[in-house]
Amino acid sequence: MAHGGGIDSWQLKGIMRLVDWGVISKARAAGLLTWFEQNTDVSADDNAPDLRPVMYGLAIGTKNGRPASVGVSLKSPATQETEADNIGMGAITGIPLACGIKFLADGQLHKPGVLSPESGHIEPKAFLSEVLIQLGKIANFSSTAFDDHIEIARSW
Predict the structure, then answer these.
(1) In DSSP terms, which residues pair with 59 in a beta bridge?
(2) Could you tell me whether strands 56-63 and 150-154 are parallel, antiparallel, or unpaired per DSSP bridges?
């Protein structure tokens, strides 16, 4: 899930739940997100304590029969939404796709279909490490070490 247009995570979660429950279609959800993006002031406040990263993922489900969630985000200042962005949305979306293709070409993927790092078909740390190496080339990271750029939050 990538945020944009000033939409809060509770709004994203709400729209996601409406789709899950069959109340609205995916096309209608996309329309709502587009409306939010077009009708919300997205000026970045560098002093805001809750400034979210440009790229993050959130998985909600169960673990051992109990509700659970895990979030993963890039925490590097180079990936924060500011007027001086070093990394645009094209790179944020295109580089992970290219890394997935590289994994496929290198024989690291053995199942056909659309695969995500959290699905168990891709080793997440290896995938995200490769993404960081490639993002680092664009953003001139002083380090592309996993722990310098990735933050993981779990509910368990």
Answers:
(1) 70
(2) unpaired
- Type of residue found at 72: V
Q: What is the pLDDT of residues 4-42, one digit of tens each?
A: 445 567 777 888 888 889 999 888 888 887 777 677 665
Instruction: Please check the confidence at residue 83 and state whether its pLDDT lies above 50.
Output: no
CA pair distance 98, 117, nearest whole angstrom: 14
Distance spanning both ends of the chain, measured CA to CA: 21
Residues 6+ apart with CB under 8 A from 63: 156
Nearest to 89 by CA among 81, 77, 101, 100: 81
How is residue 155 written in tokens? 């509910």
Report the alpha-carbon angle 93-28-116, nearest 5. 35
Helix (H, G, I), strand (E, B) or coil at 69: strand
Looking at residue 49, its amino acid is P
DSSP codes joined into one string, 7-63: --HHHHHHHHHHHHTTSS-HHHHHHHHHHHHHHS-----TT-TTPPBSSEEEEEEEE
Q: For 45-64, what is each residue's pLDDT tens digit?
A: 545 555 556 667 788 888 89
Bridge partners of 123, per DSSP, are none
